């Protein structure tokens, strides 16, 4: 059974919607929880019962404890088993024991309540294997000593949040869809699997693809997180907020491009809560996470749709817009990849005819994602004509998702509106039954400037949501909150790298965990 990435749902812990309502009237708005369907993992070996009937929503787990690793270890063992079944079949019992002996952290309860980076640093030495060598070398020992050492160094480096280190070099763009590589029981793996576990995922349901995505997201938000977390923790964790603490939190949020409106809202709610009860830093941060997540979820609730997914068996037309350079073409390529991987018949229309190079670029992405591109040879051809041809092709082929690249560089809002309106008219005439969505691509590195672009596009087109790209290249990841608060636009997809698999549907829960807890 093919895993539908578009319909991957995120069950958030109940506490995330309940607690803030005491302090924040907004929290009493409908949460849309009922609309959410249970999580299904993108494993190729779906559990049989999951196919027959959706499992009931998993029991919520209030907080992630990445350093209490039972899920991570079990998931690792399971994935490794899929990788090397023979090796594991020889003596599965020994594998479990060795795993436990090798990575069982001996952190006590106190360590769990300390800040994440500190806990990593404290727990790290205990990740070393016990001195006594096991009788039979387990597969786990293929984590070479050098690899563990590198990991130790990395964890130690990460524990020192300041000064901000140089960003890790991003993997080069990969021309072909590539399977996530390398199964390593490292900090990324542990964090990602515990984030999934906190959403009710069982270890055997955890796939390498999801681990790969969450790891990318976590690494992508590295820069934003580093400039936020430690200072936030010290400011938030001192009982009722002093004027100084308010100022610090305000400055930190604004620095991460959270925006004035969202920052004010967060501070008001946080102050109200901390006046009611003194929370230790970890709990205060947990509360802050709830506030941020609610803020991100609000436009999703208002839109009435938690996910943006093509409807099966029908023609869905997604107009992808955005100014040049924001990652529009890349996003189309990644969406096409996601669509084919998720079992949809997909086609791309190269309707950004304003620039000849745009057509060529989109063709390259079509090749990478193995999706055909409908283009009109010749320069400055009419985009509406390309859409017309593309719809005809889509109808002939039974296409389910037609991704339309639209021009971003139009001199003014009127031109933009006219062009988008013309494309819409063609679609309405040629495919009246199609489901049409408009997705705006925004570049996170542009921070608040992106909001102004969004404003113009929001006025020109009825937007279904935003694809926020380049999160991995900026410390302004907080702009996601400004998009939600100031523009009330739902974020639908996140791009956090240049690889074809580095774009996935948005989860407010995972985003906030990666932002404040990774
Ligand atoms: N690091 C990173 N780079 C990205 C991401 N998305 C896109 N890019 C890069 O951003 C650059 C611009 O991307 P394009 O997709 O060409 O942008 P565009 O909006 O189509 O702009 P034009 O090519 O000028 O039409 C490329 O170098 C992409 O590799 C992302 O999520 N992370």
UniProtKB/TrEMBL annotation:
Gene assigned in the entry: ftsY
GO biological process, alphabetically ordered: SRP-dependent cotranslational protein targeting to membrane
Subunit structure: Part of the signal recognition particle protein translocation system, which is composed of SRP and FtsY.
Main location: membrane
Protein name listed in UniProt: Signal recognition particle receptor FtsY
Membership in a protein family: Belongs to the GTP-binding SRP family. FtsY subfamily.
GO molecular function, one term: GTPase activity
Record field: compositional bias (Polar residues): 104-118
Protein's organism: Synechococcus elongatus (strain ATCC 33912 / PCC 7942 / FACHB-805)
Binding-site residues for GTP, renumbered to this chain: 322-329, 405-409, 469-472
Alphabetical list of Pfam families matching this protein: SRP54, SRP54_N
Keywords: Cell inner membrane, Cell membrane, Cytoplasm, GTP-binding, Hydrolase, Membrane, Nucleotide-binding, Receptor
Membrane disposition: Peripheral membrane protein
Classification via SMART domains: AAA, SRP54, SRP54_N
Keyword Mitochondrion: no
Entry GO CC: cytoplasm; plasma membrane
